[in-house]
């Protein structure tokens, strides 16, 4: 029966009976934080059947948006800025890369002697358009600082040599935070590590939304394909949230972070469900970004 669910070999997570659908080209983010969303795509028992429906390529967040914009990908985990730039792109309901407080992997790092008020230039990690837009909004609307932004590779020392502050996202931000004490001992320089998720919550009272699954509408015209897509993505998210312990074990072998830090990050810092509070935060961000001339206005959220 369509939509029926069965028990998998782990004994803890159901999975859907599949429709026969066309293979979709997927642009995925190569960072730690999407790992729970990708569980079924990377692990048995569903990795093989999903590979028959999805052709996945991992890349940086900004590249995901570019692939969908050029039509070289059908589905992507894209920065929320992408939805202001395409009439064909639709939000797939259910999944998000978000935070309802401290997020750890989005940092504005500034010299303590200068502080926020002294910032005039920010070296911005080239890998994220959404974080860049958020910081522009905070600088103009809330901090009232006339900062200019320069794109820069995610190297903290080089960024601070070039500008007053450094904007780091994803794994480089996590690693910089882990190295915080050691760096101060090495350099004698005191830095402020501003957690942007916590700062946004303090300023607006709402969650920070980094990325959503976006799909080109023309790639999923039939209702069966759409239903299958939503089922696959939400099922993978739910399975990933049931296997945070396993993900912490896996990623501890691939990234220079303690297992406990990885576990806390995936289970507490990142919020993976696109709930009503996240939608409210998304709408508020778009409203502020338009008012600050950071992004074009968004009339409404366009869902699949």
CATH class of the largest domain: Alpha Beta
Strand content: 15-25%
Distance between the termini: 23 Å
Task: Return the average pLDDT rounded to an integer.
Answer: 91
Number of strands: 14
Tally the structural domains: 2
CATH topology of the largest domain: D-Maltodextrin-Binding Protein, domain 2
Q: What's the number of helices?
A: 12
Share in helix:
40-55%
Low-confidence stretches: 1-21
Cα shape: globular
CATH evolutionary superfamily of the largest domain:
Periplasmic binding protein-like II
Largest sheet: 7 strands, mixed
CATH architecture of the largest domain: 3-Layer(aba) Sandwich
Query: What Rg, in angstroms, do the CA atoms define?
Result: 20 Å
Order of helices and strands: EEEHHEHEEEEEHEHEHHEHEHHHEH
Q: What class, by secondary structure content?
A: alpha/beta
């Amino acid at each position: 029966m369509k939509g029926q669910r069965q028990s998998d070999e782990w004994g803890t997570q159901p999975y859907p009976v599949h429709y026969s659908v066309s293979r979709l080209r997927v642009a995925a983010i190569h960072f730690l934080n999407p790992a729970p969303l990708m569980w079924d795509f990377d692990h048995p028992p569903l990795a093989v059947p999903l590979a028959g429906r999805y052709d996945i390529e991992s890349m940086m967040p900004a590249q995901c948006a570019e692939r969908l914009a050029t039509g070289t990908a059908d589905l992507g985990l894209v920065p929320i800025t992408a939805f202001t730039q395409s009439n064909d792109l639709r939000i797939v309901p259910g999944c998000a890369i978000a935070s309802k407080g401290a997020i750890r992997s989005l940092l504005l790092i500034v010299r303590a002697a200068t502080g926020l008020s002294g910032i005039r230039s920010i070296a911005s990690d080239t890998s994220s358009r959404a974080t860049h837009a958020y910081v522009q909004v905070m600088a103009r609307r809330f901090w009232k600082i006339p900062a200019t932004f320069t794109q820069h590779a995610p190297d903290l020392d080089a960024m601070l040599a070039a500008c007053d502050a450094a904007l780091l996202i994803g794994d480089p931000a996590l690693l910089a935070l882990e190295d915080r004490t050691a760096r101060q001992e090495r350099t004698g320089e005191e830095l402020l590590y501003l957690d942007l998720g916590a700062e946004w919550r303090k300023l607006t009272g709402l969650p920070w939304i980094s990325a959503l699954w976006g799909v080109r509408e023309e790639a999923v015209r039939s209702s069966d394909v759409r239903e299958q897509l939503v089922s696959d993505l939400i099922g993978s998210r739910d399975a990933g949230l049931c296997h945070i312990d396993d993900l912490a074990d896996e990623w501890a072998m691939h990234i220079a972070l303690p297992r406990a830090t990885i576990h806390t990050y995936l289970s507490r810092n990142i919020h993976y469900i696109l709930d009503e509070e996240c939608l409210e935060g998304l709408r508020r961000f778009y409203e502020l970004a338009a008012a600050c001339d950071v992004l074009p206005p968004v009339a409404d959220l366009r869902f699949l």
